[in-house]
Each structure stands twice: as C-alpha cells, then as structure tokens.
Amino acid sequence: MDTSWFVVVNPRAGGGKGVLDWPKISRLLNRYDLRYAHAFTEYKYHAVELTIQAIKNGYRNIIAVGGDGTLNEVVNGIFIQQQVDPLLITVGVIGVGTGNDWFRMYQIPHNYEECVKAIKACQVFRQDVGVVEYYESSIRHRRYFVNAAGVGFDAEVARRTNRLKDLGKRGALLYILSLVKALIRYRSTRINVNVDGHHFQDKVFSLTIGICRYNGAGMMQVPLALSDDGLYDVTIIKRISKLNVLANVHRLYNGTILRHSKVVGLRGKTVEVMSIPSVGLEVDGESLGETPLRFTILPQSLNVVIGDHFSIPEPKRKSTLLEVASLQ
After folding, report:
1. Where do the domains of the chain lie, and which CATH numbers do they carry?
2. pLDDT value at position 302?
3. Chain CA centroid to CA 86, Å
4. Rounded to two decimals, what is the model's pTM?
C-alpha cells in the first residue's frame, strides 16, 4: 500500500502564513520521513482541482495546509471525483488559518511539529460529511462540508469577513470586527425550518447546522454535536435584541447557548430551510448562496487524521429532537 501524501498548500491562509511557513512545514515532513509531493493553490476552488488530479494520479492520502476553507475544498474534491471510493482516502490537516474550527473538535495540535507527528502516527477517525443544496443567481448548487453551516446572521458575518480577506486584510480580529458591524445592521428574518418532518417557523436571528461543535473562530453554537452519529445538530436563535446578544456572547464560547430562552435545539438527518426574503448561507466559513436550502448527511464517510488524545464525548441524548416542545 502506497503511504505517500499529496499536500495541498494554500499560500494565502492565515494572512500569508501558508507560504511563509511552508519551508518550516516541509522540513518537518522530511524530518519525520513522510513521503510527499505538494502544490500551491493559485485561485479559489483550485484545491478542489488539485485534489481531484492527485487522486487520479494515484494518491490516497491528502494533507490540507491551510484553514477550514482549504479543508472544505479538499473534501469537495474527494467527493466530486468518481474514480475512487472516498472511504479509501485519508485526510490530514496542518492548520495555518485564522479560524481552524474543525481542528478544535479533534484536539489536533496547532504546533506544526506536533501536527506532523500526529499525521505520522495516522490515528484515523471516520466522520460524517454534510451535503447542502443551495441557490446562487437562481441556479441550484451542491456543496459538501465537514464542520458547520450558518444561515442568517452567521452567513452575514462570514460574508463580511471574507470580503475583508479578499481586500487583503488579515488578522484574528477580522471575525470580531465583522461580527460587530453585522450586529449593527442585521435584521431577523422569518424562516421556516423542517428537521426530519418537524417544522419550526418564526423570526430567526441565526441558524447553525453542525456536524462538529465549533464555528466562528471558537464559538460553540452546536455544543452537543457528535461528528459520527449521522445526525445534524441544529441551533436556532430566535429574534433577539442586540443588547441580549452582547450580554450572552459568553454562552457561545462556554457551551451553554442551548439554555437561553430564545434558543431552540434540534437534531436530525435532513434539514430544509426556506425564507422570504432569501437569506445567505456560509459553509465551513465560506460564503455561498442563499435559501431555499436542503441539507442531507453522509454518515461516517470520510477518514480524517485526529489528535492522539482525542476521544469522542458522549453527552446524554434523550431523543433525536432536542426540544420537541419548542416547536409548538
């Protein structure tokens, strides 16, 4: 069995850390005797193309050097190609992005050497993969994802953050700046959510559909999510005042968001979202299209390299729906 890795490097990730730190990362790959070839991405979705070509060339092990967006493109390449069963492919990640939210779920070291050592050890976990169908310019599109999707306020924050990145702005505070600006301008929208046949309709501030627990640079909007249970965790924040948002930001970081009276938690295999007017969508931090949306899930369909100390937490779960009563 060939153990060679193909490394997809995003040179712009982390404000240019991808290209600046690549010599250090490549030396570590060599030091730990990892056989590899590599390529730098040159434009948006290039990582998708590079991944597809690498698989055609016989590689079955892919490393994404970048952030959540780079990983998302690699995963889309794996699932778009039809030459090889995705379960025959293993994905490792060396995080140089600003968010690295997927990293947090699996306790993967941020130190480059420890990260390379984890890839060398190759402890593999099989996680779920999400599929979302959405609209852009009245055309339906399809996208795979491995972490979380956001609708409404989350999508607006991501749109503003990505626009700043496109303008060459960098830094860990970009997300916070975008969040504050979006909070000033954003208005809740009436949204209809269908989770496995259970309907919710109300004015909604934010909607998060998660496979893993973290998004938004360390927030836990779906704090009970398990990434291999074949279910989405869905957190709906109903219309809420700006002061209430600010007073409860800490809940997004300490995992208590589901205890708030304006929050509904759901769980299911299929999620449909409709709204008038249309609201935006972000997936793994990448700004995409808008409603209507349909989410389905591919259970335990991707092999990922995780940290040595990661163990799946098992919170008590009473039912597939977290709060049936809240739907009435």
Report:
1. 5-122 (3.40.50.10330), 129-299+313-327 (2.60.200.40)
2. 98
3. 18
4. 0.89
